[in-house]
C-alpha cells in the first residue's frame, strides 16, 4: 500500500490537519511503515511498538484512533518476541533436534518475568534477515503439531501465523470494548480475482495474488470476513477493475480511487472530530478547561500514590498537626527537601488520605505545580483554585474583572477562604506541590499570594525544594514558624526495597537473589526516592540470565541520565539522540510528539544520519520515518514527563537534573543557537505550505529538494482559535537564536501578533515576552512599547480587539517622530487595521492617553471597590491602602509589587497608620474593629473590638510609638489601646449631642484635644484619659469643624470650619488664622510642619510658619476647575500637589510663587487621596478601585502636548479634524485643536466661563453656552461677527445646547426652561432670530441636564431626577418616556432621528424608538457584590 500511504501524506493529511487546527486540535498520524525498508519493517519489536501506539491513540485522540489500509497482501507475519514457559516447552517437544536446537538457541528462559517466559534474543539486521524465516517456519510447524496433540487451541496456534496487520486491526478495532470505536478500515479489492498470471505486470498499486500462497490468502480472507461481519459500518471498500495496464499509476481508475480514498479519509477525520467535540462539550470554556485541569492532576496524583512506600511517621505527624489546627486560625504547612526526595509522592498520599482523617465531606484541591501551563503561572493557578472552591461550596464564581489581575485574585482568595471557614459545613484542604516551579512573574516567588493565616477548617499544605535557596528564604520570610516545616528525608534501605519490589510487581517483573544482593550493595543506607525509581528503570531490563557484569545502578540522577544517553546513542545514533534531547531542553514549555517529528524532518543533520547509506523511499516528500521516532521515544520514557501547556500534551524532562545533564552533554553555545534557530523556523512556518527545503547527502553525493510536509503555523487557525503554540514558543526561540531583527519585525513590532496574544493569552503574557526580550536587547523603543502595555493593562484585559488598537494609538502616536522604526510601524499597522475594520471603531487622531515615559508610572490594582485610606511607611518603601469593602493591600513601592493582601475587615476601612519603621500597621474600619498588622508576614497581630455596633465607628487614628499606644477617635469616644498587648489603657466618652468632629494627640505635652460642633474644646490627659478642661472657643459657636491637622512642634491644631474659619487652637485657646470665603474642605501640613495648605471651594491657600504662627505664603490662591479635594506637600517644600473634582491633579511650584508646572490627567475620577515622596506621587479615589503612581520628574517631551479638555465641555467636528474645548485653568477660552497636525490652531475668548459647546459644521458656527446664561455664536470662517443670544430674564446658567441634524434649529436648555430657535441661512453667515418656541418643565426640584432638538420642532430632554421627555413644540404636547433612576448624563439622536440613546449616572443606557416613544433595548454595567 505504498502508493496509498504516499498520496495520503501528500494530499489528505494537510487538509485534515487544517480542519483539526480550526478546532484547536493537533493532527498526528503515526504510520510506522512509511519511509522504511522491508528489512527494518521485519524487526520483531515493531509489532509491539505499533500496538502500544494504538493504545496511546485510544486514550488521547479526539478523533479517529486507528485507520487501517488493507489490500491484496496480508503483509509481514512476525515471530513472537515472548513465549510463555509451558507453551514454549510444548513447542520444543514437537520439533526434531535441529529445529528444537534453533529455538533454544534464540529463545532464552527469563525467570524474572511474571509468569516465566522465553525471550527472543536480539540479532543484527543482516543476520535477522536469514534467521526470521527459519524461526517462523519452525514455530508454525511446532504449533500445528501441538494443536493436533491437544496441547494448544486454534487461537494459540494462530498467533504464530497472524500477520502484523491483523494484530493491529484486532487491537484497533476488533477487540475494543467501545460501542462506537474510532477505527476505520479502507479495503482495496480487485474485481477479477481469478485473473491469469499473464494478464498484467506487478505494480506498486496492485500486488498479484499469484505471489500469495494459499495459507496467506486464507488468512487475508478470514480477516476481511471478521471486519465485514462485526463492523460493516467501519469498513470502506474500494473496488478496482483489473486490466493489462493496471500497473500504470496515472491510469484514470487508479487516480479516481486515490482521490476517493483521500476524500473519505478527510471526511472520516472531520466527522469523528466533530462528534467528539459535541460529546465533550465546549472544553475551551472555563468549566471545561477547569475539568481538564482537575483530571490531569488527579491522574498524576493516582500515579504517584500507586507506588508509595513508607513515610508513615511523616504522614502521621502532618495529619496530627492538621487535626490540632482544624478549629483555630493557623499557618500554612510546608514540606521541604532536596530534589528527588519524594515530596510530590508525599503530597499526593496526603491528598488521598486526608478525607479519611477529616471526613469524607472534606473538599480537597491539589495542584502539582509546573506539570501544566495553568499550574505554572500564579495568575492562572489562583484563578482556577478560586473557581474550583466556588463550585465545590456552591458560591458565586470570581467576577470577570477580578480574574483579570493577579492582585484581585489574591484578595478574592483571602475573602473566599474566610467565607468557607464561616460556613463551617465542610473542611477545605489545598495542596500545592513544588512551589519553586511557579514562573516568577506576578511576584510568585515572594509568596504575597499565600494567605498569611488559614482560618478554621481551611488548610494549605505546600512543598518546596531546597535546591532553590532564594525561593525557600522568601517562603521562610512569609511563614517564619519553625513548627510549620516538615522535612522529607531519604528512604531507608527497607523502604527503598519495598518501593522497588512494588514497582517491579506492577511491571510483572522480579529479581533473582543475586540481583537483590547487588541492589542492597548499591544502597546500603537507603537514598532519595528518585534514585530508587531510576534503579527500577534499570532493574526492569534485567533478565534472570543477565550477566552480573552487566548489572549497573546509577548513584546519581545525572549518572543515570548519562547512562541512558550512551545506550540511546548506541541504538539510534549520536546525532539523532543529541538533537532530540537538545530540542526538548531548548523549548520554552516542551514539545509535542507531532512537533518533534516535524522538527526532526527539518533537521538536515538528523536526516543525513538516517539516510547515510540509502536514499529516502519517497521522491517528493522528505520526512523523518515515524518508526525512528517511535523507537527512540519508547526507550526515552524514563527521562520524559508529559506536561499540559498551550492546550496540548507536551513532552519535557521528568527532573531538573536531567535537563542539566542534557545541557552539559549536548548543548554547547553553538549547539544551543542551532537548536533555537531550527525551532524558530518551525514555529514561524518557514518551511510549511509546500516550501521545499534542500538536503545534501554527502555519503551519496546527492542533493534532494523535497517537501518536508511540516504543519503550517498561522497566527489564527480560525476566527476564534489562535495558534497558542506559536504564540508561546516563537519569541523565545527568535531571541535565543539571535534573530533580533525578525523578532522586532514579526513579533514585538507586529500589532497582529500583539493583539492576537493579548486576546488568546492575556496582556500579561505579552508583557512577559517584552520583559524577556528587553533584558537582552538594548532598544529604547521596545521598552516604551512594554511600558505602553503595562499602562494599558487595566483597560485592555479581556476586551475586544478594537480597544487594543485604540489604546496603543492613543498612547504611542505622539512618539512616532522620535521612534519611527518600531513605534512608527506599530502605529501605522494600527491605523491600517482601524481603516479596514468592518465595524465602528474609535480611531485616535493624536496621542491623548498617558504615554510611556510620561508621568504615569503604573497603576496598582487589586481592589474591587474604591480606595478610602492609604499611608506610606516612614522609609517610603511600603504603601498600605484600604477600600470600601474592607480589603487592605500592601505594596512594595520600590518595584511596585503587591506584598500582602490583608483580609479581615468586613466593612469600609476608614483610616490606616504605618509605624515601627514600616514593620507594622493599624487600621480602623466601619465594622467597629481595629486591626494591628505585621507587615513583614502580612498577618494580623491583634483584632480589637473598638466600638459597639450601635455606636459610630472610629474615623481617625494616632500612633504614639514612644508610649506604644494607638488612639482611636470616633464621634463620642477616644480609646487608647496598647500596641504590644492590645489591652485597653483607658477610654474617654463624650456626649452624643456634642459629637467630636476633630481630635488630636500632642505626645510631648500628654494632651488629647477634641473639638465638637459649635466650637467646644476639651483637653484630656493622654496617659490617663482624665478631663483637664473644657471651654467654648469664641466666635465659633455657629460653625462645625470640617477638617484639621496637627502641628506637634507648636503644640497646636489647625482646624477648618464649615463657615470658612481657619483657626489655630492650643491648650491656651484659639486664634483665628483667617476667615476663608467658603467651607474649608481640607487642611494639610508639610512634613516639617512649616507649610500649611487649606482648601475651600475651587481654591487652595498656602501658608508658611513663623514664630508667631502662620502667615500667607502665596499672594494668590491656587485656582482649580472644580471643588478641591486634597493636597500634598513635598518634603523639601518645593511643590504642592492638589486634586479637585475635575478628575485631574495639579502640580504647583512653591519656589516659583505658585506657578502651575504640570497637570496630570487620566485619573478617571476625582482624586480624594494623595501621598507624596520625593518625585513619586500616589493618587487614589473613593470612586475607583485602583491607585495610580506618578513620576513628577520626567521627560516632558514624552508627554502628549494636547491640553486636557474640561469634562462635558467639548465638541468635535464631523470629520474629526478639529476638537473644540476649554482648559481647567482657563474656562473663559475655547481652544481649537487641529487633530491632524496635533497642535492648537486658534483660541476664542468668551466673556464668562463656558458651560457647553456645540458645532454646526455645515453652517461653520460654534455655539458656546456660558455660566451667565448667554450663548455666543462664533463664525468659524470669520472672527469679526460674533453673535450673542441673551438669556431670558433670571435664567442662568446654560445647561446644554443642541442642534438638529440638518442644522436648522437650535435648542438652549436652562434649569427649567428650553428655547427653540431657527437658524436661517444668510450671507456672510446664518442669522438667528428670537426664539420660535419656549417651554418650561414641570418637575419640582429637578433641573434639565441634557437636551436634543429634532426636526419639526420636537425636543427630547433629560432631567437631573432621571426623568426623560419628548416635547412637541407646535402641538405643545409632552410625551414622557420611562425614566432612568439617576441623572441623565448623555443624550443623542440617530441621523434619521428615529432612534435616541440616553445614558444616566448609574451606568444605564436606553435605546428609544421616538416614533412610538417606547424603549427598545437596555444596557447596564452592574457591579458584582462580594461576600
General description of the model:
There is one protein chain. By secondary structure, the chain is α+β, with helices and mostly antiparallel strands. It is 32% helix and 27% strand. The protein is built from 34 helices and 69 strands. The strands form 18 sheets. It has a five-stranded parallel beta sheet, sandwiched between helices. Strands 37, 38, 39, 40 and 41 form a five-stranded antiparallel beta sheet that branches. Strands 57, 58, 59, 60 and 61 form a five-stranded antiparallel beta sheet that branches. Strand 18 (878-883) and strand 19 form a beta hairpin. Helix 22 (574-586) crosses helix 26 (656-666), helix 28 (724-736) packs antiparallel against helix 29 and helix 30 (751-761) crosses helix 31. The chain starts with a helix and ends in a 7-residue tail after the last strand.
Amino acid at each position: 500500500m505504498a502508493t496509498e500511504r504516499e498520496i495520503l501524506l501528500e494530499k489528505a493529511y494537510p487538509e485534515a490537519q487544517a480542519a483539526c487546527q480550526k478546532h484547536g486540535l493537533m493532527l498526528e498520524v503515526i504510520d510506522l511503515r512509511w519511509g522504511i525498508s522491508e528489512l527494518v519493517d521485519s524487526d520483531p519489536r515493531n509489532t509491539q511498538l505499533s500496538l502500544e501506539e494504538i493504545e496511546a491513540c485510544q486514550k488521547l485522540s479526539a478523533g479517529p484512533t486507528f485507520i487501517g489500509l488493507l489490500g491484496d497482501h496480508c503483509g509481514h507475519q512476525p515471530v513472537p518476541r515472548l513465549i510463555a514457559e509451558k507453551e514454549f516447552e510444548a513447542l520444543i517437544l514437537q520439533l526434531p533436534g535441529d529445529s528444537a536446537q534453533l529455538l533454544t538457541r534464540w529463545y532464552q528462559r527469563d525467570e524474572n518475568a511474571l509468569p516465566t517466559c522465553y525471550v527472543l534474543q536480539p540479532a543484527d539486521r543482516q543476520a535477522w534477515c536469514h534467521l526470521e524465516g527459519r524461526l517462523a517456519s519452525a514455530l508454525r510447524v511446532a504449533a500445528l503439531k501441538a494443536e493436533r496433540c491437544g496441547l494448544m487451541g486454534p487461537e494459540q496456534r494462530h498467533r504464530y501465523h497472524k500477520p502484523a496487520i491483523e494484530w493491529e486491526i484486532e487491537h484497533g478495532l476488533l477487540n475494543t470494548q467501545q460501542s462506537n470505536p474510532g477505527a476505520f478500515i479502507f479495503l482495496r479489492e480487485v474485481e477479477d480475482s481469478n485473473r491469469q498470471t499473464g494478464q498484467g505486470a506487478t505494480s506498486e498499486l496492485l500486488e498479484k495474488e499469484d505471489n500469495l500462497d494459499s495459507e496467506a490468502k486464507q488468512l487475508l480472507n478470514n480477516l476481511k470476513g471478521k471486519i465485514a461481519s462485526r463492523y460493516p459500518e467501519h469498513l470502506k471498500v474500494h473496488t478496482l477493475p483489473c486490466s493489462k495496464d493496471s500497473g500504470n499509476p496515472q491510469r484514470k481508475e487508479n487516480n479516481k480511487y486515490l482521490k476517493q480514498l483521500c476524500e473519505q479519509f478527510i471526511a472520516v477525520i472531520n466527522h469523528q472530530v466533530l462528534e467528539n467535540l459535541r460529546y465533550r462539550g465546549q472544553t475551551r470554556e472555563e468549566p471545561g478547561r477547569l475539568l481538564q485541569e482537575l483530571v490531569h492532576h488527579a491522574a498524576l496524583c493516582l500515579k504517584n500514590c500507586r507506588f508509595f512506600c513508607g513515610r508513615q511517621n511523616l504522614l502521621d505527624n502532618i495529619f496530627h498537626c492538621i487535626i490540632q489546627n482544624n478549629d483555630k486560625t493557623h499557618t500554612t504547612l510546608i514540606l521541604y527537601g532536596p530534589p528527588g526526595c519524594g515530596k510530590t509522592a508525599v503530597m499526593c498520599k496526603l491528598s488521598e488520605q486526608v478525607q479519611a482523617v477529616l471526613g469524607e465531606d472534606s473538599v480537597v484541591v491539589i495542584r502539582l505545580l509546573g506539570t501544566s501551563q495553568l499550574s505554572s503561572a500564579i495568575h492562572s493557578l489562583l484563578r482556577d483554585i478560586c473557581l474550583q472552591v466556588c463550585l465545590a461550596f456552591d458560591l458565586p464564581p470570581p467576577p470577570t474583572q477580578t480574574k483579570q489581575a493577579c492582585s484581585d485574585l489574591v484578595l478574592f482568595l483571602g475573602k473566599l477562604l474566610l467565607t468557607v471557614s464561616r460556613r463551617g459545613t465542610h473542611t477545605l484542604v489545598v495542596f500545592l506541590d513544588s512551589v519553586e516551579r511557579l514562573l516568577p512573574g506576578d511576584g510568585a516567588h515572594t509568596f504575597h499570594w499565600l494567605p498569611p493565616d488559614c482560618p478554621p477548617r481551611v488548610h494549605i499544605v505546600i512543598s518546596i525544594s531546597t535546591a532553590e535557596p532564594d525561593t525557600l528564604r522568601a517562603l521562610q520570610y512569609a511563614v517564619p514558624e519553625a513548627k510549620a516545616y516538615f522535612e522529607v528525608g531519604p528512604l531507608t534501605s527497607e523502604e527503598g526495597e519495598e518501593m522497588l519490589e512494588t514497582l517491579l510487581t506492577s511491571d510483572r517483573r522480579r529479581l533473582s537473589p543475586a540481583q537483590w544482593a547487588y541492589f542492597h550493595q548499591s544502597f546500603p543506607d537507603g537514598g532519595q526516592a528518585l534514585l530508587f525509581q531510576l534503579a527500577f528503570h534499570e532493574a526492569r531490563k534485567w533478565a534472570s540470565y543477565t550477566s552480573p557484569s552487566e548489572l549497573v545502578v546509577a548513584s546519581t540522577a545525572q549518572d543515570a541520565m548519562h547512562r541512558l544517553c550512551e545506550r540511546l546513542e548506541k541504538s539510534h545514533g549520536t546525532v539523532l539522540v543529541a538533537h532530540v534531547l537538545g530540542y526538548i531542553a531548548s523549548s520554552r514549555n516542551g514539545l509535542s510528539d507531532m512537533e518533534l517529528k516535524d522538527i526532526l524532518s527539518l533537521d538536515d543533520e538528523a536526516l543525513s544520519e538516517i539516510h547515510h547509506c540509502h536514499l529516502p523511499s519517497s521522491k517528493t516528500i522528505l520526512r523523518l520515518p515515524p518508526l525512528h521516532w517511535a523507537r527512540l521515544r519508547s526507550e526515552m520514557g524514563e527521562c520524559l514527563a508529559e506536561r499540559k501547556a498551550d492546550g496540548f500534551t507536551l513532552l519535557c524532562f521528568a527532573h531538573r537534573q536531567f535537563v542539566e545533564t542534557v545541557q552539559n552533554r549536548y548543548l554547547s553555545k553553538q549547539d544551543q543557537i542551532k537548536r533555537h534557530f531550527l525551532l524558530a523556523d518551525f514555529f514561524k512556518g518557514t518551511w510549511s505550505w509546500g516550501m521545499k527545503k534542500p538536503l545534501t547527502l554527502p555519503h551519496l553525493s546527492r542533493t534532494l529538494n523535497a517537501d518536508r510536509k511540516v504543519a503550517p503555523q498561522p497566527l489564527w487557525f480560525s476566527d476564534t482559535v489562535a495558534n497558542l503554540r506559536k504564540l508561546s514558543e516563537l519569541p523565545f526561540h527568535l531571541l535565543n537564536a539571535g534573530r533580533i531583527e525578525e523578532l522586532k519585525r514579526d513579533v514585538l513590532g507586529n500589532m497582529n501578533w500583539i493583539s492576537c496574544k493579548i486576546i488568546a493569552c492575556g496582556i500579561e503574557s505579552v508583557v512577559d515576552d517584552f520583559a524577556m526580550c528587553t533584558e537582552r536587547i538594548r532598544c529604547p523603543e521596545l521598552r516604551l512599547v512594554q511600558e505602553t502595555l503595562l499602562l494599558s493593562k487595566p483597560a485592555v484585559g479581556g476586551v475586544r480587539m478594537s480597544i487594543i488598537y485604540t489604546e496603543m494609538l492613543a498612547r504611542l502616536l505622539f512618539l512616532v517622530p522620535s521612534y519611527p522604526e518600531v513605534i512608527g510601524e506599530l502605529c501605522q499597522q494600527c491605523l491600517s487595521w482601524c481603516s479596514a475594520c468592518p465595524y465602528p471603531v474609535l480611531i485616535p487622531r493624536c496621542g491623548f492617553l498617558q504615554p510611556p515615559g510620561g508621568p504615569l508610572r503604573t497603576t496598582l490594582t487589586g481592589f474591587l471597590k474604591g480606595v478610602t485610606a492609604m499611608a506610606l511607611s516612614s522609609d517610603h518603601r511600603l504603601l498600605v491602602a484600604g477600600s470600601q469593602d474592607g480589603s487592605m493591600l500592601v505594596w512594595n513601592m520600590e518595584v511596585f509589587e503587591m506584598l500582602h493582601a490583608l483580609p479581615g475587615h468586613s466593612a469600609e476601612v476608614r483610616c490606616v497608620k504605618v509605624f515601627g519603621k514600616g514593620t507594622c500597621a493599624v487600621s480602623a474600619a466601619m465594622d467597629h474593629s481595629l486591626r494591628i498588622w505585621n507587615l513583614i508576614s502580612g498577618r494580623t497581630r491583634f483584632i480589637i473590638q473598638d466600638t459597639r455596633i450601635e455606636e459610630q465607628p472610629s474615623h481617625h487614628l494616632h500612633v504614639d510609638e514612644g508610649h506604644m499606644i494607638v488612639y482611636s477617635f470616633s464621634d463620642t469616644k477616644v480609646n487608647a489601646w496598647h500596641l504590644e498587648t492590645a489591652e485597653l489603657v483607658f477610654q474617654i466618652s463624650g456626649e452624643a449631642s456634642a459629637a467630636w468632629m476633630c481630635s488630636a494627640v500632642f505626645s510631648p505635652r500628654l494632651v488629647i484635644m477634641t473639638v465638637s460642633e459649635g466650637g467646644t474644646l476639651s483637653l484630656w490627659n493622654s496617659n490617663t484619659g482624665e478631663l483637664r478642661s473644657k471651654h467654648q472657643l469664641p466666635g465659633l459657636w455657629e460653625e462645625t469643624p470640617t477638617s484639621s491637622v496637627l502641628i506637634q512642634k507648636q503644640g497646636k491644631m489647625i482646624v477648618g470650619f464649615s463657615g470658612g474659619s481657619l483657626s489655630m487652637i492650643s491648650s491656651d485657646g484659639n486664634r483665628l488664622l483667617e476667615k476663608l470665603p467658603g467651607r474649608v474642605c481640607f487642611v494639610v501640613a508639610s512634613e516639617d510642619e512649616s507649610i500649611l495648605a487649606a482648601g475651600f471651594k475651587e481654591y487652595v491657600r498656602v501658608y508658611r510658619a513663623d514664630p508667631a504662627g502662620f502667615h500667607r505664603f502665596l499672594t494668590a490662591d491656587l485656582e482649580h476647575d472644580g471643588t478641591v479635594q486634597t493636597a500634598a506637600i513635598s518634603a523639601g517644600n518645593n511643590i504642592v500637589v492638589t486634586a479637585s473634582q475635575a478628575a485631574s491633579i495639579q502640580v504647583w511650584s512653591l519656589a516659583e510663587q505658585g506657578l502651575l508646572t504640570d497637570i496630570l490627567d487620566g485619573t478617571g475620577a476625582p482624586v480624594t487621596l494623595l501621598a507624596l515622596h520625593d518625585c513619586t506621587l500616589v493618587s487614589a479615589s473613593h470612586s475607583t478601585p485602583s491607585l495610580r503612581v506618578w513620576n513628577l520628574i520626567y521627560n516632558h517631551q514624552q508627554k502628549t502636548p494636547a491640553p486636557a479638555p474640561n469634562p462635558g465641555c467639548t465638541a468635535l467636528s464631523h470629520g474629526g479634524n478639529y476638537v473644540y474645548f476649554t482648559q481647567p485653568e482657563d474656562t473663559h477660552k475655547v481652544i481649537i485643536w487641529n487633530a491632524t497636525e496635533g497642535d492648537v490652531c486658534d483660541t476664542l475668548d468668551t466673556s464668562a466661563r463656558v458651560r457647553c459647546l456645540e458645532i454646526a459644521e455645515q453652517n461653520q458656527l460654534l455655539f458656546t453656552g456660558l455660566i451667565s446664561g448667554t450663548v455666543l455664536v462664533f463664525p468659524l470662517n470669520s472672527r469679526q461677527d460674533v453673535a450673542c443670544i441673551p438669556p431670558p430674564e433670571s435664567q442662568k446658567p446654560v445647561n446644554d445646547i443642541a442642534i438638529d441634524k440638518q442644522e436648522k434649529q437650535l435648542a438652549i436648555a436652562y434649569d427649567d426652561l428650553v428655547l427653540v430657535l431657527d437658524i436661517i441661512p444668510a450671507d456672510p453667515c446664518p442669522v438667528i432670530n428670537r426664539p420660535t418656541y419656549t417651554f418650561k418643565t414641570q418637575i419640582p426640584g429637578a433641573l434639565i441636564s441634557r437636551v436634543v432638538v429634532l426636526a419639526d420642532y420636537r425636543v427630547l430632554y433629560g432631567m437631573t431626577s432621571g426623568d426623560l421627555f419628548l416635547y412637541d413644540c407646535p402641538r405643545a404636547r409632552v410625551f414622557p418616556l420611562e425614566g432612568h433612576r439617576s441623572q441623565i448624563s448623555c443624550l443623542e439622536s440617530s441621523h434619521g432621528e428615529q432612534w435616541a440613546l440616553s445614558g444616566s449616572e448609574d451606568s444605564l443606557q436606553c435605546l428609544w424608538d421616538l416614533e412610538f416613544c417606547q424603549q427598545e433595548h437596555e444596557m447596564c454595567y452592574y457591579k458584582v457584590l462580594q461576600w
